[in-house]
Design goal:
Arc Repressor Mutant, subunit A, alpha/beta, elongated, Rossmann fold, 227 residues, 12 strands
Length: 227
């Protein structure tokens, strides 16, 4: 699955450079040009990580929260230090809740490695066998069972089921699923998702009478588990 990354960078050339390369490396990038816009996007987009090139005060506000507003105050934050930043600026960034500090000028490859390292630190350990109701998915062997019955699962149907089962109470939008399972970079008019979801539903139904893969009209798909 791709990670949602909030990029708050006021310098247009640097922002465009980072947005292009991070997108190419599989991140779903949402971009802000100033601190207030970054806070609004943190509230609405719920990013997995914030890359902060704006003022340090935004980091403090992310951590402490604000009355009447709601975002993940524990979201990891990497601060991009200004060109004139020194050791004092680095300490201040950490004091305000930053998880890492990258000084400018920076190498993109190093920044990417720092982003991935921070995400690994905050990610919960991944279970090799994911269970959702009667469905058990073994990531290592790519084996799927439903109520104890083995179900043969082709590649993309397996990835689609794995994505839905990772959060079975959630409705995934079509855009999310096309991006995470098929790697689409932009919204496209395609029946790919619908046809795979239909075939996946039939495969699961052969082992259980539950509907499981449900189309939420106008939004996307979710996994419906039997009560």
């Amino acid at each position: 699955m791709s990670c949602a990354l909030l990029l708050a960078e006021p310098e247009p050339a640097t922002g465009s450079f980072l947005e292009r390369h991070l997108t190419d490396d599989g991140f779903a990038v949402v971009r802000a040009e100033d601190g207030d816009e970054a806070l609004s996007l943190a509230e609405n987009a719920r990013p997995d990580l914030v890359l902060l090139g704006t003022e340090l005060e935004i980091c403090r506000r992310l951590r402490t929260g604000e009355p009447g507003r709601s975002w993940d105050r524990g979201v990891p934050v990497i601060v991009l230090g200004q060109a004139e930043a020194d050791a004092v600026d680095r300490v201040r960034a950490f004091d305000r809740g930053a998880d890492d500090f990258v000084a400018r000028p920076f190498m993109y490859e190093e920044l990417l490695a720092r982003i991935r390292a921070v995400l690994r630190r905050v990610s919960p350990p991944r279970l090799e066998v994911l269970e959702a109701g009667e469905i058990a998915i073994d990531r290592a062997t790519r084996c799927v069972t439903v109520a104890g019955k083995r179900v043969q699962m082709p590649g993309k149907q397996f990835e689609l089921l794995l994505t839905l089962a990772a959060d079975p109470s959630r409705v995934f939008t079509k855009e999310e699923l096309l991006r995470e399972v098929w790697g689409y970079r932009s919204v496209a008019r395609t029946r790919t998702l619908d046809s795979h979801a239909s075939r996946l539903r039939r495969r699961l139904a052969a082992a259980s009478e539950a509907p499981y893969v449900v189309n939420v009209w106008g939004v996307g798909y979710r996994l419906m588990l039997p009560v």
